[in-house]
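Try it yourself: sequence plus S-adenosylmethionine, in.
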Amino acid sequence: MVEVQIARRGVHDERVLAALRKVPREAFVDEGFEEFAYEDSPLPIGCGQTISQPLVVAMMAEAAAIAATDRVLEVGTGSGYAAAVLAELAAEVVTIERHLPLAEKAQQRLGAAGYANVDVKVGDGSKGWPEKAPFDAILVAAGGPSAPRVLQEQLEIGGRLVMPVGRERGSQRLIRITRTAANKFEEEDFGGVMFVPLIGEHGWQDNP
Ligand code: SAM
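Structure, out:
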């Protein structure tokens, strides 16, 4: 899967490719979906949500340029699969999910797979997690109308926020915002993507 679906489609960071090779994706999909775990597609995980496509996880991790000493915040834990990939790359990962059943299942799966450096929280990740800030990287796995200022302010100087942003709920651009100084943020565009909506105070309202 990594060679055919990810490296050939433009992700070249060796640490990211090694992390994807190492994380057993079948451990993060629901029962009955194991045979599809290595197809590069999103799969249902309950609560109307999906496990991210491996290529998208890889693109976001590469864009976030994560170092082994980094502290990382992920918004949108879902299955816990991307959190496991991030845990392979970083020193510490905090991940927030708004649906309690998904957060509980992800915590169990991450524990069973041996990831001790991931802390799963339940709540509105569009507000970040100020108690644990600042972060070297923040990855948002759901699309919002804009990149919340409150998340940008939880970055270290030099920190990167990678997030899908778009005026429509189902279609976004993947952007990276780097905090280059206390009050200076630089934005880059990594192309079109399609994510489920970020529902929360600094995202979209529930039930449009
Ligand atoms: N990265 C996950 C994985 O590997 O399985 C998949 C993420 S899924 C595409 C997006 C997740 O974001 C969903 O589980 C959804 O419930 C969650 N979400 C949406 N808005 C959120 C918010 N404000 N705070 C926390 N989680 C949120």
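One thing you can check immediately is this: The pocket of S-adenosylmethionine is lined by residues 49-52, 75-76, 78-79, 81-82, 96-99, 102, 124-126, 141-142, 195-196, 198-200, 203 (CB under 6 Å).
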